[in-house]
Amino acid sequence: MNLVQPSPSPLAPELVARFKAIVGDKYGVTDAQEIAPYVTEERNLYHGHSPLVLRPGSTADVAAICKLATETRTALVPQGGNTGLVGGQTPHHGEVLLSLRRLDKIREVDTQSNVMTAEAGCVLQTLQQRATEADRLFPLSLGAEGSCTIGGNLSTNAGGTGALAYGVARAMALGLEVVLADGRVLNTLSKLKKDNTGYNLHNLFIGAEGTLGIITAASLKLFPKPRSVETAFVGLASPAQALKLLEIAQNEAAGSLTSFELLAEICIDFSVRHGPDLRDPLTTRYPWYVLMEISSSRDDARATLEAILSRGIETGIIEDAVIAANLSQQAAFWKLREVISPAQKPEGGSIKHDVSVPIAAVPAFIAQANAAVTKLVPGSRPVPFGHLGDGNIHYNVSQPAGGDKDAFLARWHDVSAAVFEIVLKMGGSISAEHGIGVMKRDELPEVKDKVAIEVMRGIKAMLDPLNIMNPGKVL
After folding, report:
1. CB 128 within 8 A of CB 148
2. What CA–CA distance (Å, rounded) separates 62 from 393?
3. Are 313 and 245 in contact (CB under 8 A)?
4. 324 DSSP 8-state letter
């Protein structure tokens, strides 16, 4: 079953007026300069265009927009904070863009049920802060948390640095409110951890990137706020040693090990060179680093972390380590990790991959991928980092120093093909937490089970028979 891709034609003035009437003239944007920030993204990789940006203020507005879009066969592209990395939030073919940022109400915080109900346009950092004010934790955390929205996080099934202990975005959603293509509102918002009443429909829309419906609200799990959090920065000789340290940490800390990030030396080099007033926490440079965090409901995080590091040093796994002495130093450790991606920009072109392999295969994957890409593009600089505890590596490749940026980026497909071949050979995934969008859409049928692709297309055709919901993305 092949999906018919709509070819958006210029919107008639009468139709523009009908759409604007739903949200109010102030929130129907047609000026090209005002539209520009919505159709470009931070990496400047994708450039879209749209005749109209709609900014609904309620679920009812979204439902009315979808109903009119179905009636007039008008393609829609939903967008949250516009922080996506695979082009899923960009209107590539002149579709109407639906910005959900005005849907930013936190409807309820129920500390007894440990559930927060929030609208799709709520900024992730705002949800974290609101949970903290209620003496709770909302553990989803990623680099763009100051601007990304929970609707986008769920639509892409975002991962982040806390996934090791708390899971990815999907694990934090108890239910959703979703507007379907025809304007019907599917309400599965729930505070229940146990609800075995048929198909789990809300999970269908998490990770679907707006191709099946538009998420307008979610009921989200909250967790007890940790009483003690301790962070260590560790120098090691290799990813294999980091893997051994992970095993020690998991055995010693169990569920209190909340982050375990692997960083190549070049990552620290870039961050220190281009980051704001950052420095290497260790006095000597090492080939690899681990950023590890222990979070506990008791005041024992420090003792647990010290026990892990002591055993790592005794067994010769750890070369050197330092524990953050205060919150300021803790933030500085994390800043080194957070600025890795922007710090690559001054180094020229960067070909990026968000992949996962079985945790035990991470050292072999990095070694094989490094050999493959440097052979393919001599002088290229692999910049691997990411969530070792999840097997999720952001395998980025920076251009040769002083090389031609455009010529390097022209090899994107070749480099990705080499990396993906190794990933698939190891039983991994070509998309761990960033989604498919348009970047990996064409590769998906080649790596996904054929029956799975058929089922996905069938679900899409049933829920969106006119293919107006973010067309051309994922499938």
Report:
1. no
2. 36
3. no
4. -
Contacts of 385 (CB under 8 A, 6+ apart): 261, 262, 263, 264, 267, 337, 340, 393, 394, 396
The single residue listed with the structure tokens 């440079």 is 285
Contact 233, 329 (CB under 8 A): no
294 bridge partner residues = 230, 257
User: Which is it for the CA torsion 60, 62, 65, 71, positive or negative?
Assistant: negative
Tokens linked to 118: 């929030």
Output phi, psi for 371, to 5 deg: -65, -40
3-class secondary-structure state, position 238: coil
Q: Which strand ranges, in their side-by-side order, compose the sheet holding 53-54?
A: 28-29, 53-54, 96-99, 76-79
For 186-201, the DSSP string reads: EE-----S---SS---
Token pair, residue 161, equals: 């640095």
Per-residue pLDDT of the chain (475 residues; tens, 9 = 90+): 445 555 556 899 999 999 999 999 999 999 999 999 999 988 888 999 999 999 999 999 999 999 999 999 999 999 999 999 899 999 999 999 999 999 999 999 999 999 999 999 999 999 999 999 999 999 999 989 999 999 999 999 999 899 999 999 999 999 999 999 999 999 999 999 999 999 999 999 999 999 999 999 999 999 999 999 999 999 999 999 999 999 999 999 988 999 999 999 999 999 999 988 899 999 999 999 999 999 998 889 999 999 999 999 999 999 999 999 999 999 999 999 999 999 999 999 999 999 999 999 999 999 999 999 999 999 999 999 999 999 999 999 999 999 999 999 999 999 999 999 999 999 999 999 999 999 999 999 999 999 999 999 999 999 999 999 999 999 9
Q: What's the chain's length in residues?
A: 475
CB 72 within 8 A of CB 96: no
Quick one: tokens of 419? 């990396």
Q: Is 458 left (phi over 0), alpha (psi -120 to 50) or beta?
A: alpha
Cα gap 130→430, rounded to integer Å:
34
Rounded to whole angstroms, how far apart are CA atoms 173 and 195? 13
